[in-house]
């Protein structure tokens, strides 16, 4: 079975990803460089049309998305502990965990199922896939390992 790369992202998933990036960059005092892409995605939302990654270059966006993903993964346990002690009137622990998991799932889908041109995001993609393959081998999930191996082969273009 050969892995097949996608080129159309569900618009709701894409908007979730880009809103997270915009929020984090604004909180960090960084400039948000993806406003044009966000504007285009919001017009696609009006028509419920998926975003085509062959038309819209998302490599730079994915590099920014990885930085957030990496921070979330590093702090996952600490955030859960912190949420036990801090109360926000508009946000509870369960909601925060669910939203974080949703972001991670969207990011992982985009990393695992789309081709990129930028060497930096391709390197990140390969590292994540190799780590995932290593984990699936360690739990003896060889079917999953074979799928990931096929993805890696396809990405070595």
Uncertain ranges: none
Helix content: over 70%
Strand order of the largest sheet: 1-2
Task: Label the overall shape.
Answer: globular
Quickly count the domains.
1
Largest sheet: 2 strands, antiparallel
Mean pLDDT: 88
Radius of gyration: 17 Å
Tally of individual helices: 6
For the termini, the CA-CA separation is 18 Å
- Estimate the strand proportion: under 5%
Q: What's the count of strands? A: 2
Structural class: mainly alpha
Order of helices and strands: EHHEHHHH
Account of the 3D structure:
The protein is mainly alpha-helical. It has one domain. It has helices at 11-27, 35-47, 59-85, 93-113, 119-138, 142-155, and strands at residues 8-9, 51-52. A two-stranded antiparallel sheet has the order 1-2. It is globular and about 45 Å long. 18% of the residues are buried. The mean pLDDT is 88.
Layout of helices and strands:
Blueprint: E1 8-9, H1 11-27, H2 35-47, E2 51-52, H3 59-85, H4 93-113, H5 119-138, H6 142-155
Antiparallel strand pairs: 1-2
Could you provide a short overview of the structure?
By secondary structure, the protein is mainly alpha-helical. It has six helices and two strands; from the N terminus they run E-H-H-E-H-H-H-H.
Notable characteristics:
single chain, about 160 residues, mainly alpha
């Amino acid at each position: 079975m050969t892995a097949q790369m996608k080129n159309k992202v569900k618009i709701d998933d894409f908007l979730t990803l880009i809103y997270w990036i915009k929020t984090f960059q604004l909180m960090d005092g960084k400039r948000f460089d993806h406003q044009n892409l966000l504007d285009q995605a919001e017009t696609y939302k009006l028509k419920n049309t998926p975003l085509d990654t062959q038309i819209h270059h998302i490599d730079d966006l994915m590099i920014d998305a990885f930085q957030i993903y990496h921070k979330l993964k590093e702090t996952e346990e600490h955030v859960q502990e912190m949420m036990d002690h801090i109360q926000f009137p508009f946000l509870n622990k369960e909601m925060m965990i669910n939203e974080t998991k949703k972001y991670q799932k969207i990011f992982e889908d985009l990393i695992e199922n789309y081709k990129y041109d930028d060497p930096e995001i391709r390197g990140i993609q390969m590292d994540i896939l190799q780590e995932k393959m290593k984990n699936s081998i360690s739990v003896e999930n060889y079917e999953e390992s074979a799928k990931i191996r096929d993805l890696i082969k396809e990405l070595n273009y």
